[in-house]
Write a structure and sequence with these properties.
Length: 204
């Protein structure tokens, strides 16, 4: 099984390195002209990790994690439409602000690609992870999507890299996962940007 991590963000390198550490086959997809200025990206290049275009990475992968900045999502969707994605699992790890039936970027990706196996996960970490969690306290992520077999595969991948996978139901709940992230950001704003905030699910 090969994984593609799309986007030049901290979350992309963090998830990629976690999967690599567990022996997974990982390729990275970045936009044209991407400059590997951050240390984490330079280390990946020194380790001869594949830095491909979005289309090349999608083409090689069985599971695609979208960890990009919002402004390159149209490029990623165009790359998806330009290659064969039949049988692939797509995972939106981003947070958008646009209003549609699914909410945010997940709805945009579905509208643009109409992909039948789209999930949302890891968005509670934020694109700046692990900077947003310097003490390594966040140990869980919510995920949602349709399909029994694909969701089991995603759950196992989440757990493989040390997170507790909390099943939030069908893809229609993606907007609720977005809301959790944006509430966290609003709390940080009220606190004048001091520190970061995360939610933890407690069962009683």
């Amino acid at each position: 099984m090969k994984l593609a991590i799309l986007g030049g963000t901290n979350l992309a390198t963090a998830l990629g390195n976690k999967f690599l550490a567990r022996g997974m086959d990982v390729v990275f997809g970045v936009r044209e002209g991407f400059h590997a200025g951050q240390v984490a990206w330079k280390i990946l290049q020194m380790q001869n990790q594949s830095m491909l275009t979005f289309r090349e990475a999608i083409d090689k992968a069985d599971i695609v994690f979208i960890c990009s900045d919002n402004d390159v999502l149209p490029q990623i969707c165009a790359a998806m439409n330009a290659t064969d994605t039949v049988g692939k699992i797509l995972v939106d790890c981003t947070n958008g602000t646009s209003e549609n039936e699914l909410g945010g970027n997940t709805g945009f990706i579905l509208e643009q690609t109409n992909h039948p196996s789209l999930f949302k996960a890891f968005n509670n970490l934020g694109l700046e992870y692990p900077k947003s969690d310097p003490l390594g306290l966040v140990k869980e992520t919510y995920f949602c999507g349709d399909g029994v077999e694909s969701r089991l595969i995603l759950k196992r991948l989440i757990e493989l890299i040390g997170f507790k996978a909390i099943d939030a139901g069908k893809l229609k709940n993606a907007k609720l996962l977005d809301a959790v992230y944006h509430l966290r950001k609003e709390i940080a704003h009220v606190k004048n940007g001091y520190g970061d905030f995360h939610f933890k699910l407690m069962s009683v």
